[in-house]
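Dear colleagues,

For the upcoming journal club I promised to circulate an example of a predicted protein-ligand complex. I picked one with alpha-D-galactopyranose because it came up in last month's discussion. The inputs are reproduced below in full, followed by the predicted structure.
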Amino acid sequence: MKEKVHSKFVSLFGEGGVFYAAAGRINLIGEHTDYNGGYVFPGAIDKGILAEIKPNGTDKVRLFAIDRDEYVEFELAEDNLPSQHWPRYIFGVCRETIKRGGKVQGFDAVFAGDVPLGAGLSSSAALESCFAYAINDMNANGLDLFELARIGQSTEHNYCGVKCGIMDQFASCFGKAGHLIRLNCKTLEYQYFPFDPKGYKVVLLDTCVKHLLADSAYNKRRESCERAAAEIKKNHPEVDFLSDCKRVWLDEVRGKISEEDFIRAEYVIGEVQRVLDVCDALERGDYETVGEMMYQTHFGLSRLYEVSCPELDFLAKLARKMEVTGSRVMGGGFGGCTINLVKDELYDGFIAAAKEQFREKFGHDLKVYDVVISDGARKL
Ligand code: GLA
């Protein structure tokens, strides 16, 4: 990938620049908890974005995306929002850096990636984090890693229309090889947990479906949670997020919020606790409990939060039938991957059965990604 990026860079822009990289992510547990002030438990993966970048002495940004074979340029002022989707991630990062007092000189960049798109592995966060990191470094802006993650998140909010939480950009910036990171999304305290489940493999099964309107459905989930938290706050003023709520406090507002908002909140309150339970289980080396929690999360995401789909439900059900330790939809949902915790001895049989039965049922192939937990954003 590096060679390809470099030869394109030289052919378009002349003398080479500096390489930067940032990763996609997995999340073991803690889904749709980040924007509710709860815990998440992600790690960066060995698939990401690689960019070669060089300041060009103008106030223009010139970009070439290898995977799309497309060239785009824009100027840095706010009213130059690119019309295509992908350059908006980089435009947004430039603008959000400027809003935070950072300097952004024009630059040339060529980039490529190997994070599968639409698979729920945060290809967009990898792109944002890579450029946020690079721009900060090239301009010696001195913003810390949290600020760089927030730059990516605000890019999604203000330039891409997704009211996401901080998890993806956080994982992409803070990732560390061999470790998952438990983040409290309210206080931003975090802790690295070594993750090397001996005797088990973590594997992603990509349904290769991505449902339309996923972004607006995502934003609607967030609004449901905010309405539920606001109603609970009337009784318990200390509540800012659903993560502050006891389960019984939710019961007190049943009937005052819609049934839909109620079941969304019910899922979130359960999920916040499950992250803590999984971390405890991991410290004891109790992978069976970790797996059981993953199934519970899947149930909640499918039946209460309603962000699953038939393809994902099929894979989680098959995993259960084949005695896989844990399986669930990962990321925002509405398509993408399941994450599976599988005993070594069951791995080959499970993958073969999943491939065959999935193709039979849905008429197309799934994809299999073995997970390697890797480093986050960096200069190469
Ligand atoms: C997407 C968002 C994250 C998070 C997950 C669900 O990946 O970008 O902020 O909300 O969905 O856990």
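Two points we might discuss: The longest strand covers residues 42-55. The radius of gyration is 21 Å.

See you all on Thursday,
B. R.
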